[in-house]
Each structure stands twice: as C-alpha cells, then as structure tokens.
Design brief:
The structure is a single chain. The protein is mainly alpha-helical. Helices cover 46% and strands 7% of the residues. It has one domain. The N and C termini lie far apart (49 Å).
Length: 208
C-alpha cells in the first residue's frame, strides 16, 4: 500500500497523463472546465512538424543528427534516434518537436521505473527504442506512465524518504529523496504535456 503522502501526487500524475493522452489520441479532451472538446488522433505530420528552423527532433539514423546536435540517442540498432548533445547543451536551447518531447517523456518514465527496486536497474538510453511514428510514440508514453505508476503505488513512507530509491542515471535522481523525484516527474509530464498541446494547437491553426 502506498504512503498517504503520495495521494495528491498520484492524483496529479493520473490527471496529467490522462489529459495528455486525451490531447494526443482523442476522441475528446477536457481542458478542466467540464466541457469536452473533440480532438482527432495526432498524425505523423504533426509528430514531426518543425515550426522553426533548427529544431531538435526524432530522425532516421541514416539521416544523422540535426542542427547543433552531435548524436541520436536511443537503441543503436533502432531505425530512429532523438537529437542530443553532451553537457553543456547548446545555448540557447534548440526548439524541440512533439516527437522529441513525447519520446523524452516516455523514455524518462520507462527508465525511471526500471531504476527502482521494481525494475532491473540496468536500462540505459542505448536500450530504449525511439518511436518513429505518432501512434507508436503515444503507446510508448502510455506504457512508460503505467510502469512509473506501478512504482508509485508500491512506495511506502520509507521509500519516499530514501535517497537514491530511483537511480535513473540521466539527472540528479540518485542524489535526491524519492518524494522529490515523484514531484519532479509530475512537473515534467505537466509542462511537456502543455507544450505538446500548444504545438498541436499551432499546427491546427497553421492548416486552418
């Protein structure tokens, strides 16, 4: 049984994920005012849309990384990779597509769940297969969110107060209390979800 302290954070996570998947896949999305709005599934054209020059995105490995990127992260044997560069990252940060943002979220949730006592604590970005189409990317996000949620519902007070309970290797997770990581992951889903929703709106307005 999870800690009562997790109740508001778990409810927030569920709401953020439901809102994002609804915004991506339809058939309706509720912006919070109780008035559902019809929305169609995201297309591959939207997924890869680059609204400005020099975007970071998901690309075929045969095409190589985009502007200011030095590598394509993800499974080396996969057909697709996500633009990346080692620290320090380019400044100002490149604008990122829906494909970049959504695969980043899915990877973070999947690897984060694996680097807890519920997982193997072995997965790296080189194990993660980056999605090369919208439908697969949405499914990967849903799978990653479900895996992370399973970690949360098993977390008791001792887990929340443990430094390094989540050892996700691409960030400060190993040095942070798990309760702080739970909060941070929620913020990642909320703010990237809002960015993705805005990009869908801009894409629709462009076509209109």
């Amino acid at each position: 049984m999870h800690s009562p302290r997790l109740v508001p954070l778990l409810e927030q996570f569920d709401f953020a994920c439901e809102r994002l998947t609804g915004r991506l896949a339809g058939p309706v999305v509720d912006s919070g005012d109780g008035a559902p709005t019809a929305v169609g599934p995201m297309t591959d054209e939207e997924y890869f849309w680059e609204p400005v020059p020099g975007c970071w995105s998901v690309r075929r490995r045969s095409a190589g990384p985009g502007a200011r990127a030095t590598a394509l992260s993800g499974h080396p044997a996969g057909e697709w990779g996500r633009d990346s560069a080692p620290y320090p990252h380019p400044s100002p940060p490149p604008f990122t597509t829906i494909a970049w943002r959504l695969t980043h979220l899915a990877e973070m949730l999947t690897l984060g769940a694996d680097h807890t006592p519920s997982g193997s604590r072995t997965l790296t970005r080189d194990d993660y297969r980056v999605s090369g189409d919208a439908a697969t990317a949405v499914a990967a996000f849903e799978q990653g969110a479900a895996a992370w949620r399973q970690v949360l519902v098993k977390a008791d007070d001792a887990a929340l107060d443990t430094v390094g309970y989540c050892g996700y290797p691409h960030g400060s997770h190993p040095e942070e209390l798990f309760v702080d990581i739970v909060w941070w992951v929620n913020q990642e889903v909320l703010h990237h979800g809002a960015e993705i929703a805005l990009l869908r709106d801009l894409f629709r307005a462009r076509r209109d």
